[in-house]
Design a protein that fits this description.
CATH architecture of the largest domain: Orthogonal Bundle
Number of domains: 2
CATH topology of the largest domain: Arc Repressor Mutant, subunit A
Strand content: 5-15%
Order of helices and strands: EEHHHHHHEE
Largest sheet: 2 strands, antiparallel
Distance between the termini: 75 Å
Strand order of the largest sheet: 1-2
Length: about 180
C-alpha cells in the first residue's frame, strides 16, 4: 500500500492544507458532491478489502486516508444510504429572504421619514425601537425588522447623535 503524503503546513498561518476539496474559509463547512463521492468510494474500498474487523475501524481508516473527521465520514455514509442509488448531490445553498428595504415605495419612505419628526413634535426622543413600534401600526404596517428599518432610516439622511444625557437619538442631518 502506498504511503499518504504528509500534511502541508503554511509557515505564515500555521494552517493545514488538504487536497480533498475542503470548502473555502468564506463558505459554510460543506463538502461538494465530488469530494463526498471520493470519501464514499474510499470507504467502500476499505470495507470490501476486509482488512478491518469492525465497521468503526473502516470509518477510522477512511477518515485517516481522506483526512476528514470520523463524524464527517459517518454523515456522508448516512446521506448515501438516504439517497436513491447511493448518489450524493452537492448541498443546496441556503437562500435569503427578499429584503424589505427594496420593497418600499416613495410614499412609505416619506411616511417613515415623517415619523421621527412627529416624535419631536410630541416631545419624545425617537429611538429605533420606538420608531419600529410606530411604523408597524397602520397605515404603514411595516413588515421588516429593526435592522431593516435602520438601513432605511440611514438612506433617508438620519443619523444618531449624542445628547447631553449621553444617549444617542435619531436626528435628521444638518448638511442637507
Amino acid at each position: 500500500m502506498e504511503q499518504l503524503p504528509e500534511v502541508q503546513h503554511d509557515s505564515r498561518s500555521k494552517k493545514r492544507h488538504y487536497d480533498i476539496g475542503r470548502p473555502s474559509r468564506h463558505s459554510p463547512s460543506r463538502y461538494k458532491s465530488q469530494s463526498r463521492n471520493i470519501i464514499m468510494n474510499v470507504h467502500q474500498f476499505f470495507a470490501q478489502e476486509g482488512s478491518c474487523e469492525t465497521m468503526e475501524k473502516v470509518v477510522q481508516k477512511t477518515a485517516t486516508a481522506t483526512r476528514v473527521s470520523m463524524n464527517t465520514v459517518e454523515r456522508i455514509k448516512a446521506e448515501a444510504k438516504k439517497s436513491p442509488n447511493g448518489v450524493i448531490c452537492s448541498p443546496t445553498p441556503s437562500s435569503r429572504p427578499s429584503p424589505v428595504v427594496g420593497q418600499l415605495d416613495d410614499f412609505d419612505r416619506e411616511c417613515i421619514r415623517r415619523e421621527p419628526l412627529s416624535f419631536y413634535e410630541r416631545g419624545e426622543l425617537p429611538t429605533l425601537s420606538a420608531l419600529l413600534e410606530r411604523v408597524k401600526q397602520p397605515p404603514l404596517s411595516f413588515q421588516g425588522s429593526q435592522s431593516s428599518l435602520y438601513k432605511i432610516v440611514k438612506k433617508l439622511w438620519f443619523k444618531y447623535r449624542k445628547v447631553q444625557s449621553s444617549r444617542k437619538i435619531l436626528m435628521e442631518r444638518e448638511d442637507i
